[in-house]
Amino acid sequence: MTSIGTGYDLSVSTYSPDGRVFQVEYAQKAVDNSGTALGLRVKDGVVLAVEKIKHSRLLVPHANRRIMTAGKHIGVATAGWISDTRHLVKRVRDEARDYRSTYKVDIPAKIIAERTGMYAQAYTLYSAVRPFGVSTIIGTVDADGPQLYMIEPSGQYVGYRGCAAGKGKQVAKTEIEKLNLDQMTAREAIKEAARIIYAAHDDSKDKLFELELSWICAESNGLHTHVPQNLFDEAIQHAERSLNDDEDDDEMEGDDE
């Protein structure tokens, strides 16, 4: 970063001479150092998956979840600082509750994404605050069908068919682009999401991690829930089998050379 050390990164409300806001870029770097999170929008629902890095064997299993429910039909998966995650998820819950209280219907995906994005963007405007170091993936099923949005630390929000954030996002995006999401069911997407998380995981740097999977589809009665244990186990087996097959193929190619 050419302007580091010249004072342009001391306030989020200051542009550098080349038009950059460094504190927003630092927040994005915090996201890029976090475990991978992804979302898949398929023909009958939405699937969310997160690689939750475990920094200690003493951590309680399933604690500090990175996939949370923000409304009966709204799931949120995040990559970045867990403290910022909790704050943003609380905001999403407040917006969903207020909208339903006012209009007596569930909040549409586009509106919840817009309001959350505007809230995140407000924290890039004033020197007394800092940007949220978290990318937020919001999945829901509304009147228009399955919907998937991602909100960046800058406040930018975009609708996706498939998206990823975190340290393994490039590998995840490459794998997502290979999928035929329009023809895929939520059950199939669960297995593919687990496979992608395992493929994106860097075992040399982060040995311990915990996989989180959730979905919103007809099988979950249109509600955001973590996937049933039997399906979760099948997804893990599918991911490990695919990973082992890829390693075997690499070994065979190495022997041929």
UniProtKB/TrEMBL annotation:
Localization (cell): Cytoplasm; Nucleus
Keywords: Cytoplasm, Hydrolase, Nucleus, Proteasome
UniProt cross-references to InterPro entries, sorted A to Z: Ntn_hydrolases_N, Proteasome_alpha, Proteasome_alpha-type, Proteasome_asu_N, Proteasome_sua/b
Annotated protein name in UniProt: Proteasome subunit alpha type
Domain Proteasome alpha-type subunits, chain residue ranges per copy: 8-30
Superkingdom per UniProt: Eukaryota
Similarity-based family: Belongs to the peptidase T1A family.
GO terms under cellular component: cytoplasm; nucleus; proteasome core complex, alpha-subunit complex
